[in-house]
Design goal:
The protein is about 0% helix and about 50% strand. It contains no helices and eleven strands. Strand 7 (about 65-70) and strand 8 form a beta hairpin. The radius of gyration is 13 Å and the shape is globular.
Amino acid sequence: QVQLVESGGGAVQSGGSLRLSCAAPGSVFTISGLGWYRQAPGNQREMVARISIGNNTKYADFVKGRFTISRDNAKKTVYLQMNNLQPEDTATYFCNSGGSFYFEGPYWGQGTQVTVTS
């Protein structure tokens, strides 16, 4: 069983920043592509960003230039730095592990809430 634990969510005003973290103890982390996804009420879960084992990254168009995904294999942690947050970024954010650079894996965290007010 792979357990992913997200942290760093909260409430910020429009234009603010947050940094999400996802700790994933275990060997799966270092051999996996990793990703951040989000789900707003009434919407389907959508990909925000993914990072490969070799630190290649890809982003959804709606976050390009504002969000940055990174990973620390020694700490087995993946991060999502979110700048210039907007109200439409309000959602529950989930980290994902066990996949490739292109496809999500089977392991999910419990989610962390991000709320952006105008």
